[in-house]
Design a protein that fits this description.
With about 300 residues, the protein is an alpha/beta fold. The protein folds into two domains: about 180 residues, NAD(P)-binding Rossmann-like Domain (Rossmann fold); about 90 residues, Alpha-Beta Complex (UDP-galactose 4-epimerase, domain 1). It is about 40% helix and about 20% strand. It has twelve helices and twelve strands. A seven-stranded parallel sheet has the order 3-2-1-4-5-6-10, sandwiched between helices. Strands 7-9-11 form a three-stranded mixed sheet. Strand 1, helix 1 and strand 2 form a beta-alpha-beta unit. Helix 3 packs parallel to helix 4 and helix 6 packs across helix 8. It starts with a strand and ends in a 7-residue tail after the last helix.
Length: about 300
């Protein structure tokens, strides 16, 4: 199958491209820089130049492929409105390009704010609708295309997709610990984050491409929830720093933009996904990665 991948050189995307190629698929990746293009070509993928704002390139890539996996996102925490708008526009462009074809369209989403007081499940609908909502309401927008003969599948990734080389949330928390001299956790540290190793997340995407029915929501979750206190303890061990609670009123000042996320309970299950796909995570746990030094480099 010829698969067009946005975000192909990113953290999850680069792992996904490698897994797709190993599974025998032909891959074209969207690349916005010479470095990204070279990395994709070195893996054996084809390259389409463009970025998330280049809707013509995204449209052409989708039209030329047998399936689309949309993993790109600006992740501009200083201008979330612009990130949300770009995400919605890209999803609408891909959906319109695939309408009436029955082709697979897999897109990245998350498990954030799906439930209250319990781990989120695949049956929980996203509460985000419309262009002003998180990620521009992209999951619900994409799922609307099922009625227009698009084989949409939502890929809900755990808040931490971890591993050596990660520059995401856990790397940010480690950088804050280095800067402040303490590894902090919010309040009593009981709130939890779901987690998955990058290799396991990439494998789930490939399996979802071949096995998930239209309208499915898949959870890329290996660990249901790691308490923030346990995460902070592991960061403290890795960096040889003291570990301390950060009072609720001080969370934003200490952690900055990531504080609101680190204080959330973002636990989730993946039982339905595992049964549907035959997916069994085998990678290291988040704490094993931290203890192995995956986040110790500056």
């Amino acid at each position: 199958m010829h698969v067009f991948v946005t975000g192909a050189s990113g953290w999850i995307g680069s792992g996904t491209v490698a897994d797709l190629l190993a599974d025998g698929h032909e891959v074209t990746g969207l690349a916005r820089s010479d470095g990204s293009a070279a990395a994709l070509e070195a893996k054996g993928a084809q390259v389409r130049r463009g970025d998330l704002d280049d809707l013509d390139s995204i449209r052409s890539g989708a039209e030329a492929a047998d399936a689309v996996i949309h993993l790109a996102n600006k992740h501009d925490w200083s201008d979330l409105a612009a990130s949300n708008a770009a995400e919605r526009a890209a999803v609408q462009t891909i959906g319109d390009a695939l309408a009436g074809t029955g082709r697979p369209f897999l897109l990245a989403s998350g498990v954030a704010a799906l439930s209250q007081g319990r781990p989120a499940t695949e049956a929980d609908p996203s509460p985000f609708h419309g262009p002003d909502s998180p990620r521009g309401g992209s999951e619900n927008l994409a799922l609307e295309y099922v009625d227009r003969d698009v084989h949409t599948v939502s890929l809900r990734f755990a808040p931490t997709v971890h591993g050596a080389g990660d520059h995401g949330f856990i790397a940010t928390l480690a950088a804050i610990a280095r800067r402040t001299g303490v590894s902090g956790y919010p309040g009593d540290g009981a709130n939890r984050w779901a987690a998955v190793h990058r290799a396991d997340a990439a494998r789930l995407v490939t399996l979802g491409l071949g096995k998930a029915p239209a309208g499915a929501r898949l959870h890329a979750v290996a660990e249901e929830g790691v308490p923030s206190r346990v995460i902070a303890d592991a960061i403290g061990r890795a960096l040889d720093l003291p570990v301390t609670s950060i009072a609720p009123q001080d969370i934003q000042g200490h952690f900055g933009w990531i504080g609101a996320f680190f204080a959330m309970d973002l636990s989730a299950t993946s039982e339905a996904t595992r049964e549907l796909l035959g997916w069994t995570p085998t990678g290291p746990t988040l704490i094993e990665d931290l203890d192995a030094g995956a986040y110790t480099a500056h």
